[in-house]
Amino acid sequence: MSNIKFLLIGTSLSIIPTLTFAQCVATQDCAALGYTETSCNGGKGVKCPFGNQWACFKTENDFCTEFAFDQTCTGENQTPGGKACNGKYCYCECKDGYSWKNGKCQKDIHDGAQGELYYCNGEIIGVKTSDMEFYIAIKDLGKKIWTSADNACRRYSSCGKWRLPTLDQFYVIYNNRLQLNTLLLNHGGDKLKEDETYYTSTPYGSYHDRFDMADGGRDGGWGDMGEYFALPVLAIY
Fold first, then answer.
1. Where are the extended beta strands (E) located within the chain?
2. For residues 3 and 13, what is the distance between their CA atoms, to the nearest angstrom?
3. What Cα–Cα distance (Å) separates residue 225 from each residue in 43, 170, 213?
4. Distance CA 192, CA 127 (A)
5. Whole-model pTM?
6. What rounded mean pLDDT belongs to the chain?
7. How many CA atoms lie within 13 A of 187 on its CB side?
8. Positive or negative, the Cα torsion across 131, 135, 137, 140?
9. What fold is seen in the domain 112-235?
């Protein structure tokens, strides 16, 4: 009986070195051991014993940057969110009625028409005066030939069906230009170009009417052959 016990103990002991050898494999690969840098700032790190690579100690700033602590949370309608790292935060808390969008707390606004302003994804993309039945884009789309102007206006925004203005709509724009310019400038847009000509969607024979903002008049003729400004509008239904 004692011989059997000795045999079992001997067998169990003989297995342990085999398992240990299978799990531990020596390596001199610096990168595999975590030594991935060619040098460390100020020598703050450990050099690989098998080569010239280093494992560097992270500074507090490195750690904060790596884990996206990049918000100061000192803007309007916001307070710090969570714990700080090197004086910055991962996110900011917005006060009631505001949400975090594009790096700041913005007022919760439903997309679409809101009085004089038209919103898309929380951003103002159009304005109008109180007596207008359509919005104009916050910025024109530059000079284009008519076909490009028409296509660009239709692609202006996924919020609503935008297009070139009719000739009649341009008369309304012209008569409201002072109020529109104030709205445009107050909300990050560009003033109407008062000395330029714009394309309309109103046909003129085989071509299209143009509108001259310099004198508020129709400028028809061979307009499709030249380049004139494109200004998207959106009708209110």
1. 45-47, 54-56, 78-81, 91-94, 98-101, 104-107, 112-114, 117-120, 123-127, 134-137, 143-144, 197-204, 207-212, 217-218, 228-229, 233-235
2. 16
3. 68, 21, 19
4. 12
5. 0.57
6. 82
7. 21
8. negative
9. Mannose-Binding Protein A; Chain A (3.10.100)
Q: Residue 224: beta bridge partners? A: none
Amino acid 11: pLDDT: 40
Angle between helices 167-175 and 177-186 in degrees, nearest 10: 80
Question: Running DSSP on this structure, what letter comes out for residue 71?
Answer: B
Helices (DSSP H) in the chain: which residue ranges? 2-23, 60-66, 146-154, 167-175, 177-186
CA distances from 101 to 108, 114, 123, 184 (A): 10, 19, 10, 22
The yes-or-no verdict on residue 137 having pLDDT over 80 is yes
Distance CA 186, CA 190 (A): 9
Backbone dihedral angles phi then psi of residue 204, each to the nearest 5 degrees: -135, 90
What band does 139 get if pLDDT is binned at 50, 70 and 90? very high
Where in the chain do CATH 3.10.100 domains reside?
112-235
What does the block give as tokens for 203?
Answer: 């046909």
pLDDT of residue 223: 53
